[in-house]
Each structure stands twice: as structure tokens, then as C-alpha cells.
Amino acid sequence: MNDLAYDYYYYNQQPQESKSITSIHLFTDRAIYRPGQTVYYKGIVLTRNNVEKTGGVMAGYSTTVVLRDANYKDLDTIRLTTNEFGSFSGKFQLPQTGMNGQFSIYTKKDGGNIGFKVEEYKRPKFFVDYEPIKGTYKVNDKIKVTGVAKAYAGNNIDGANVKYRVVRQPRFLYPWFFWRSWQPPTEQMEIAHGEVKTDKDGKFVIEFTAIPDLKIDKKLEPVFDYTVYADVTDINGETRSGEKSVSVSYKSLMLVSSVPSSLPADSLKSLSIRTQNMNGEYEPAKVKVTITKLKEEKRLIRDRYWERPDQFVMSKNEYIKQFPFDEYDNESDSKSWEKGQEVFNKVDSAKANGQWAIGNNSFTPGFYIIEIETKDKNGEIVKDVKYIELFDEKSNQLNRADYLWLGNTKTSVEPGETANVELGTAADNLFVVYQLDKNDNNNIPSAVDYSFIKLDNEKRKFNYLVTERDSREICCKKYDNLLIGVL
Length: 487
What we know:
Elements lengths: L2 H11 L6 E9 L3 E2 L4 E12 L4 E4 L4 E7 L5 E8 L5 E7 L7 E7 L5 E6 L7 E5 L11 E10 L9 E12 L16 E9 L5 E7 L12 E12 L5 E11 L4 E5 L3 E3 L5 E7 L9 E9 L21 H7 L16 E11 L5 E3 L8 E10 L5 E11 L13 E2 L11 E7 L5 E10 L5 E11 L3 E7 L9 E5 L2 E5 L1
Parallel strand pairs: 2-9, 18-24, 27-31
Antiparallel strand pairs: 1-3, 3-4, 3-7, 5-6, 5-8, 8-9, 10-11, 11-14, 12-13, 12-15, 15-16, 17-19, 19-22, 20-21, 20-23, 23-24, 25-26, 26-29, 27-28, 30-31
């Protein structure tokens, strides 16, 4: 039982009238040792009073520390007392002989326990490496992987036996394919195995066919990672392993793009777009970028009380007439909004550093879809889709109809800094109750402050000065026409 499990057990076994709980946490200087080496350890003793909600370290606390071997036999024992900081430290000498394996250090009370391994060290005489994969491949192509077994002394390991296997793992490059549908399951599969020998230069060649997973539709543009695992055994019986991964798809080119989810409207000057082969090497290509404004949902929609239906028995107009504040289909999801006016269209070459210039174009605040297209060497179209919200930093209103909006708030600030929290709503005359909780350094509540404000179709900032004793969390919930903010 490790120290965390023991603490949980110990805490829950305390009688109800017990006021304080003591626990010991142990640490070692390493995770693995050789026979005969010295293990340096340290312990920290903590106490907590459940009644007074206080806690800290314990000075002057005595306990017995024990070294135990892999056969659960106690090898050495020492009595220690904590210093003024509630800690103690010491060392144990490991035996030169005997069974190796999982050793441990534990205390005879309060559940202190830490495990570590004791293993013999054997210096390897050679290593396994692979030559770079040259060229690009598509599914069903023959792929040749060349490896080499080379001694650290510099000579080649010839005549060694090589056992190999090839494992296929599918993955998907473009999340936008699955915004309106489910992603098919992926599973590993061994597609080849066998044995070869190293030649006089220590090299070995593994060939396999890049068989795709036919259960996955090629329209989803899956990528298949083929990992070659090779175990090389020389004439002395020493075995070393190495692996090499090769990525293959139905197309020979992939788009790697990065677009922030939101930006100030005057800050969209460039995009990060890179064209590369399946193994991550840059491939020059022309890229077309189209930016289109989306038609925002104007209705103020509250959260669903039930899951989205798979069948609709009412027309959208009839539903909205009966339930004006409830969602019919996916209106609250900006990815489902209709396209509006195309505001940008440009073709330019992708660069190795990924910088793709938009220029000094002017965009109005709102939601946009960015479509990125290129073609591989076979003329196949490769496409990626991104969505972005552009906002006006000076405006105090939201871009979309939302009951609750939380701005980009820093999740952590240093003592002495000011925490800025931005809340907003598109609803009229919203009554807000917010609560400020302060915790001390032991995460124990020290103060609670309630305040009341009104928001009326606006955004507002709240500023809080953070001190050394503060620990604060931000959480917001909404209930129809009532917003509760916990800060």
C-alpha cells in the first residue's frame, strides 16, 4: 500500500471524536539504485485538525524508519525525530548481494511509505538506429525501412538476428470533419512480422505494405502511423531494441494550421499555415485562403433541459413561436451558422516557417469561417477549416446573443498583481449575485464576500488585488433570467 492509499485508509478509519490526523510523506533521491549503493531519504510530517480546520508541520515528532527488501524482509531500522520544520532525513546502505527488485522504506506508524527499484547495471555493447525515410508514400505502397546495429566501440554488428513487427495506428488530422458527426473508433493492428539478419555493415532491411484500415472512410482523410519494432540479438545473446515510425495517408500532403479562437478585429494580419509531407518535412505548395462572415443567431437561447433530438416533429418556425427562448437544433453552435458575405480571398505560397500574410485588411467584429485549401502532387485537394471570433475591444456589448459570457481571464496571478474578471450578457436587466471566497495558504476558507449588481446587455470588468494569503477560483452558472457568479 503506497503512502497516498494509506493516508486515505487512515483518515477514514479515525474515530469521529478524533480531532487531529498525522501523516508522513517520504521521498528518496532516486527511483532506481544498484546493489551496494546508498539510499538518501527525507520525510515530512504533517498534521491536520478537522475540528478547528487548521494544519501544518510537526516539530519534535519521533518515528521509526525501516528499510525493507523485495522479499518483504526488514533489513535496517533507525529512530528519527523531526526538526523545527517538521522534517527528518537519513540514509540506508543497500546490500551487495541478495535478490534485487522492488525495495521500500516505511515508517512503523502514520503510513509513511516509498518504493524504489534495485537492479544490476549491465553496460550495453551496441545500439539500434534507423536511417531517415526518404520520399513520400501513399497507402498500399511498399515501404522499406533500413536499420543499423552498431557497437559503441565503432564496429558493425554483423550476423545478428533481427525479430521485427509492424503495428498500424490510425489517427485524424482535421477535427472539422467531426463537428457534425461522430469520429469512428481507431485501434492498433499488427500488419507484419518476421526475422532478418544484419549484413556485414550491420544493416538490416524491413519491407512491408502500407495496408490501410478499410473500416475508416477515406473521405475522412485518416493518417496511418506504421511503427516498426525491431529486437536485435548479437552472437553473444545481448538484445537491443529500436523503433521507427512512418506516416502514410491517401494524400501525400497535409496542412498544419493554427488560428486563435478569438482576436481583436484589427489584429487579424497573418495566419500560421504550413504544408508538409506525412513525416513532417516541409513541402512547397500554393495555398488558397477564404474568409467568410457567418450569420449570427439573433435569438437569446438558454441551455437545453434535454439532449438534442434526432427527429423533429415540429417545424422550426412553429417551435420558436411556442418556445422562443429554447434551442431547436444547433443554433447556439457558431459552427452551424449559415455563411454570409465572403470578405477575403487570396492565393499565396506556404513558407517553411508557417507565416502566411493576410495584409492590412479591415474586418468588422463578428464570427468568421476560414477555409484553407491546397493540392498535393497528384492534384488531390487538401482542406482545413477554422472558426474565429473577431471582437471590438472598445465595445461593451457582445458579438452574439448569450445569457452568460466570460472573457479571457488569467487563471493565475502573482501576489501584488490585479486579477481582472470580465463578465457579459446580451439579456436585459440581469440580476447578478457574485461571491468572493478567500482561502489562506493551507487552502482553508478565511473570508466570504457577497455582492449584488445588475447587467443590462453589456460587458463589465471586475478587478481584485491579490495578496500572499489569497487563493481564488472563478466559476459561473446561469438559471434562465438569473445569473450567479462565484468569484
